[in-house]
Amino acid sequence: MPETKQLGKDEAIGEYFIMGIVVILGIWILFLFYNFVREVYDSIHSYFFDRIPVSRFAVRLRKLSLADSAVLQNTFLFYNQLTQRQQLFFNHRVVIFLEKYRIHGRDISITKEMALTISGTYVMLTFGFRDYLSKSFERIVVYPSVYPSSVSDDYHKGEFNPATKSVVFSWEDFRDGHEIENDNLNLGIHEFTHVLHFDSMRFQHANARLFRKHFNNILVLLTQDDYKQKIEEAALFRDYAKTNEFEFLAVLVEHFFESPVQLKTQLPELYFSVARLLNCERS
Protein backbone atom coordinates (compact mmCIF):
# COMPACT_ATOMS: atom_id res chain seq x y z
CA MET A 1 0.00 0.00 0.00
CA PRO A 2 2.75 2.58 0.78
CA GLU A 3 4.30 1.90 -2.65
CA THR A 4 0.92 2.60 -4.29
CA LYS A 5 0.63 5.91 -2.46
CA GLN A 6 4.15 6.89 -3.51
CA LEU A 7 3.38 5.96 -7.11
CA GLY A 8 0.23 8.08 -7.04
CA LYS A 9 2.17 11.03 -5.64
CA ASP A 10 4.85 10.68 -8.34
CA GLU A 11 2.18 10.54 -11.04
CA ALA A 12 0.56 13.69 -9.66
CA ILE A 13 3.90 15.50 -9.64
CA GLY A 14 4.49 14.38 -13.22
CA GLU A 15 1.06 15.64 -14.28
CA TYR A 16 1.65 19.02 -12.64
CA PHE A 17 5.04 19.27 -14.34
CA ILE A 18 3.52 18.53 -17.74
CA MET A 19 0.71 21.02 -17.09
CA GLY A 20 3.30 23.66 -16.18
CA ILE A 21 5.20 23.03 -19.41
CA VAL A 22 1.97 23.25 -21.43
CA VAL A 23 1.03 26.56 -19.75
CA ILE A 24 4.49 28.03 -20.41
CA LEU A 25 4.38 26.92 -24.04
CA GLY A 26 0.88 28.36 -24.38
CA ILE A 27 1.98 31.73 -23.02
CA TRP A 28 5.02 31.72 -25.30
CA ILE A 29 2.88 30.93 -28.35
CA LEU A 30 0.41 33.68 -27.42
CA PHE A 31 3.31 36.12 -27.03
CA LEU A 32 4.66 35.22 -30.47
CA PHE A 33 1.19 35.51 -31.99
CA TYR A 34 0.67 38.91 -30.33
CA ASN A 35 3.97 40.21 -31.71
CA PHE A 36 3.11 38.87 -35.17
CA VAL A 37 -0.32 40.53 -35.16
CA ARG A 38 1.20 43.77 -33.85
CA GLU A 39 3.83 43.85 -36.59
CA VAL A 40 1.21 43.21 -39.29
CA TYR A 41 -1.07 45.88 -37.84
CA ASP A 42 1.79 48.39 -37.56
CA SER A 43 2.88 47.70 -41.13
CA ILE A 44 -0.63 48.22 -42.49
CA HIS A 45 -1.20 51.33 -40.37
CA SER A 46 2.13 52.91 -41.31
CA TYR A 47 1.53 52.13 -45.00
CA PHE A 48 -1.86 53.86 -45.11
CA PHE A 49 -1.43 56.57 -42.44
CA ASP A 50 2.37 57.03 -42.42
CA ARG A 51 2.53 56.69 -38.65
CA ILE A 52 2.36 54.06 -35.92
CA PRO A 53 -0.24 54.07 -33.14
CA VAL A 54 1.47 54.18 -29.73
CA SER A 55 -0.34 52.51 -26.86
CA ARG A 56 -0.25 54.46 -23.58
CA PHE A 57 -0.96 51.27 -21.66
CA ALA A 58 1.27 49.24 -19.36
CA VAL A 59 0.33 46.17 -17.33
CA ARG A 60 1.98 47.78 -14.32
CA LEU A 61 2.50 51.51 -14.70
CA ARG A 62 5.73 52.44 -12.91
CA LYS A 63 5.68 55.68 -10.96
CA LEU A 64 8.05 58.48 -10.05
CA SER A 65 7.95 60.38 -6.78
CA LEU A 66 6.48 63.88 -6.78
CA ALA A 67 10.00 65.29 -6.37
CA ASP A 68 11.25 63.36 -9.40
CA SER A 69 8.23 64.42 -11.47
CA ALA A 70 8.98 68.03 -10.48
CA VAL A 71 12.48 67.67 -11.97
CA LEU A 72 10.92 66.68 -15.30
CA GLN A 73 8.46 69.58 -15.10
CA ASN A 74 11.26 72.05 -14.44
CA THR A 75 13.49 70.65 -17.19
CA PHE A 76 11.28 69.74 -20.14
CA LEU A 77 8.84 72.06 -21.90
CA PHE A 78 7.80 68.95 -23.85
CA TYR A 79 6.73 67.25 -20.60
CA ASN A 80 4.55 70.18 -19.57
CA GLN A 81 2.74 70.07 -22.92
CA LEU A 82 1.61 66.49 -22.33
CA THR A 83 -1.74 65.48 -20.87
CA GLN A 84 -1.77 64.09 -17.34
CA ARG A 85 -2.17 60.56 -18.71
CA GLN A 86 0.76 61.07 -21.09
CA GLN A 87 2.90 62.42 -18.24
CA LEU A 88 2.25 59.26 -16.22
CA PHE A 89 3.35 57.18 -19.20
CA PHE A 90 6.41 59.41 -19.66
CA ASN A 91 7.28 58.78 -15.99
CA HIS A 92 6.83 55.05 -16.53
CA ARG A 93 9.30 55.07 -19.41
CA VAL A 94 11.82 57.08 -17.39
CA VAL A 95 11.73 54.43 -14.64
CA ILE A 96 12.20 51.63 -17.19
CA PHE A 97 15.08 53.51 -18.83
CA LEU A 98 16.89 53.98 -15.51
CA GLU A 99 16.51 50.28 -14.74
CA LYS A 100 17.83 49.17 -18.14
CA TYR A 101 20.81 51.46 -18.72
CA ARG A 102 23.72 52.14 -16.38
CA ILE A 103 24.85 55.75 -15.94
CA HIS A 104 28.49 56.11 -14.85
CA GLY A 105 30.29 59.27 -13.79
CA ARG A 106 33.96 59.83 -14.59
CA ASP A 107 35.37 62.32 -12.08
CA ILE A 108 31.81 63.38 -11.35
CA SER A 109 29.06 62.01 -9.08
CA ILE A 110 25.77 61.26 -10.81
CA THR A 111 22.90 62.87 -8.92
CA LYS A 112 19.28 61.85 -9.19
CA GLU A 113 18.52 65.07 -11.06
CA MET A 114 21.24 64.32 -13.61
CA ALA A 115 19.95 60.78 -14.14
CA LEU A 116 16.39 62.05 -14.59
CA THR A 117 17.47 64.72 -17.08
CA ILE A 118 19.43 62.21 -19.16
CA SER A 119 16.66 59.61 -19.13
CA GLY A 120 13.99 62.25 -19.76
CA THR A 121 15.84 63.44 -22.85
CA TYR A 122 15.84 59.95 -24.33
CA VAL A 123 12.19 59.34 -23.42
CA MET A 124 11.17 62.67 -24.98
CA LEU A 125 12.98 61.82 -28.20
CA THR A 126 11.38 58.35 -28.42
CA PHE A 127 7.93 59.19 -27.04
CA GLY A 128 6.37 58.40 -30.41
CA PHE A 129 8.08 55.01 -30.53
CA ARG A 130 6.49 51.75 -29.51
CA ASP A 131 9.82 49.88 -29.45
CA TYR A 132 11.69 52.66 -27.70
CA LEU A 133 14.45 50.85 -25.78
CA SER A 134 17.59 50.67 -27.90
CA LYS A 135 19.76 47.57 -28.01
CA SER A 136 22.66 49.54 -29.47
CA PHE A 137 23.91 50.89 -26.15
CA GLU A 138 24.04 49.59 -22.60
CA ARG A 139 25.65 52.36 -20.60
CA ILE A 140 25.99 56.12 -20.44
CA VAL A 141 29.27 57.71 -19.36
CA VAL A 142 29.31 61.27 -18.05
CA TYR A 143 32.36 63.53 -17.74
CA PRO A 144 32.32 66.91 -15.94
CA SER A 145 33.23 68.77 -19.16
CA VAL A 146 34.89 68.07 -22.51
CA TYR A 147 36.98 64.90 -22.42
CA PRO A 148 39.82 63.43 -24.51
CA SER A 149 38.81 61.07 -27.28
CA SER A 150 39.92 57.46 -26.95
CA VAL A 151 40.96 57.36 -30.62
CA SER A 152 42.51 60.80 -31.19
CA ASP A 153 43.96 63.84 -29.42
CA ASP A 154 40.70 65.74 -29.84
CA TYR A 155 38.41 66.73 -27.00
CA HIS A 156 34.75 65.80 -27.34
CA LYS A 157 31.49 67.09 -25.91
CA GLY A 158 29.66 63.84 -26.58
CA GLU A 159 29.60 60.72 -28.70
CA PHE A 160 27.80 57.48 -29.42
CA ASN A 161 30.14 54.49 -29.69
CA PRO A 162 28.40 51.37 -31.07
CA ALA A 163 31.55 49.27 -30.59
CA THR A 164 31.51 49.78 -26.81
CA LYS A 165 27.72 50.12 -26.66
CA SER A 166 28.05 53.43 -24.86
CA VAL A 167 26.84 57.02 -25.09
CA VAL A 168 29.20 59.62 -23.64
CA PHE A 169 28.40 63.17 -22.51
CA SER A 170 30.15 66.19 -21.12
CA TRP A 171 27.77 67.16 -18.31
CA GLU A 172 28.57 70.85 -18.68
CA ASP A 173 27.43 70.79 -22.31
CA PHE A 174 24.53 68.42 -21.68
CA ARG A 175 23.20 70.70 -18.93
CA ASP A 176 23.59 73.83 -21.07
CA GLY A 177 21.47 72.17 -23.75
CA HIS A 178 18.52 72.15 -21.36
CA GLU A 179 19.11 75.44 -19.57
CA ILE A 180 19.01 77.31 -22.90
CA GLU A 181 15.91 75.92 -24.60
CA ASN A 182 15.86 77.84 -27.87
CA ASP A 183 19.47 77.94 -29.11
CA ASN A 184 19.06 74.66 -31.03
CA LEU A 185 22.05 73.18 -29.21
CA ASN A 186 21.05 70.13 -27.21
CA LEU A 187 23.78 67.55 -26.75
CA GLY A 188 21.44 64.90 -25.37
CA ILE A 189 19.04 65.11 -28.31
CA HIS A 190 21.98 65.18 -30.71
CA GLU A 191 23.73 62.03 -29.48
CA PHE A 192 20.56 60.03 -28.84
CA THR A 193 19.46 60.86 -32.41
CA HIS A 194 22.64 59.13 -33.58
CA VAL A 195 21.54 56.08 -31.55
CA LEU A 196 18.10 56.00 -33.20
CA HIS A 197 19.65 56.53 -36.62
CA PHE A 198 21.98 53.59 -36.04
CA ASP A 199 19.05 51.46 -34.83
CA SER A 200 17.08 52.26 -37.98
CA MET A 201 19.84 50.68 -40.05
CA ARG A 202 20.08 47.57 -37.86
CA PHE A 203 16.52 46.59 -37.04
CA GLN A 204 13.26 45.93 -38.87
CA HIS A 205 10.60 46.85 -36.31
CA ALA A 206 7.94 49.32 -37.43
CA ASN A 207 9.54 52.42 -35.90
CA ALA A 208 12.91 51.59 -37.47
CA ARG A 209 11.30 51.21 -40.88
CA LEU A 210 9.41 54.49 -40.52
CA PHE A 211 12.57 56.27 -39.40
CA ARG A 212 14.53 54.88 -42.33
CA LYS A 213 11.83 55.77 -44.85
CA HIS A 214 11.59 59.41 -43.86
CA PHE A 215 15.31 59.85 -43.44
CA ASN A 216 15.62 58.73 -47.06
CA ASN A 217 13.01 61.35 -47.96
CA ILE A 218 15.23 63.95 -46.30
CA LEU A 219 18.19 62.74 -48.34
CA VAL A 220 16.15 63.17 -51.52
CA LEU A 221 15.43 66.78 -50.56
CA LEU A 222 19.14 67.36 -49.99
CA THR A 223 19.92 66.26 -53.55
CA GLN A 224 17.72 68.99 -55.01
CA ASP A 225 19.66 72.16 -55.78
CA ASP A 226 16.65 74.43 -55.33
CA TYR A 227 15.89 72.95 -51.90
CA LYS A 228 19.53 73.17 -50.82
CA GLN A 229 19.34 76.84 -51.78
CA LYS A 230 16.19 77.18 -49.69
CA ILE A 231 18.03 75.70 -46.69
CA GLU A 232 20.93 78.12 -47.20
CA GLU A 233 18.57 81.10 -47.38
CA ALA A 234 16.72 80.01 -44.25
CA ALA A 235 20.07 80.06 -42.38
CA LEU A 236 18.67 77.95 -39.55
CA PHE A 237 21.35 75.32 -39.14
CA ARG A 238 24.86 75.73 -37.78
CA ASP A 239 27.79 74.77 -40.02
CA TYR A 240 28.29 71.48 -38.19
CA ALA A 241 25.15 70.19 -39.93
CA LYS A 242 27.14 70.17 -43.18
CA THR A 243 29.62 67.59 -41.84
CA ASN A 244 27.66 64.61 -43.18
CA GLU A 245 24.11 63.26 -43.43
CA PHE A 246 24.21 61.84 -39.89
CA GLU A 247 25.17 65.17 -38.33
CA PHE A 248 22.62 66.97 -40.49
CA LEU A 249 19.85 64.81 -39.09
CA ALA A 250 21.04 65.23 -35.49
CA VAL A 251 21.13 69.03 -35.86
CA LEU A 252 17.75 68.96 -37.61
CA VAL A 253 16.17 67.05 -34.72
CA GLU A 254 17.61 69.59 -32.26
CA HIS A 255 15.73 72.29 -34.19
CA PHE A 256 12.59 70.14 -34.27
CA PHE A 257 12.43 70.11 -30.47
CA GLU A 258 13.79 73.56 -29.66
CA SER A 259 12.41 75.72 -32.52
CA PRO A 260 9.54 73.71 -34.02
CA VAL A 261 7.46 76.69 -35.13
CA GLN A 262 10.38 78.32 -36.92
CA LEU A 263 11.34 75.04 -38.61
CA LYS A 264 7.75 74.31 -39.63
CA THR A 265 7.30 77.82 -41.04
CA GLN A 266 10.55 78.09 -42.99
CA LEU A 267 11.27 74.48 -43.96
CA PRO A 268 7.98 72.58 -43.61
CA GLU A 269 9.17 69.62 -45.71
CA LEU A 270 11.97 68.93 -43.24
CA TYR A 271 9.71 69.52 -40.25
CA PHE A 272 7.14 66.97 -41.41
CA SER A 273 9.80 64.45 -42.36
CA VAL A 274 11.19 64.58 -38.81
CA ALA A 275 7.68 64.47 -37.33
CA ARG A 276 7.00 61.28 -39.26
CA LEU A 277 10.32 59.57 -38.60
CA LEU A 278 9.92 60.24 -34.86
CA ASN A 279 6.16 59.58 -35.03
CA CYS A 280 5.70 62.76 -33.01
CA GLU A 281 4.39 66.31 -33.56
CA ARG A 282 5.76 69.47 -31.92
CA SER A 283 4.15 72.82 -31.34
Automatic annotation (TrEMBL):
The chain crosses the membrane at residues 16-37. The keyword Endoplasmic reticulum does not apply. One of its GO terms (molecular function) is metallopeptidase activity. Keywords: Membrane, Transmembrane, Transmembrane helix. This is Zinc-dependent peptidase. The keyword Nucleus does not apply. PANTHER family: MTFA PEPTIDASE, PROTEIN MTFA. It holds the Pfam family Peptidase_M90.
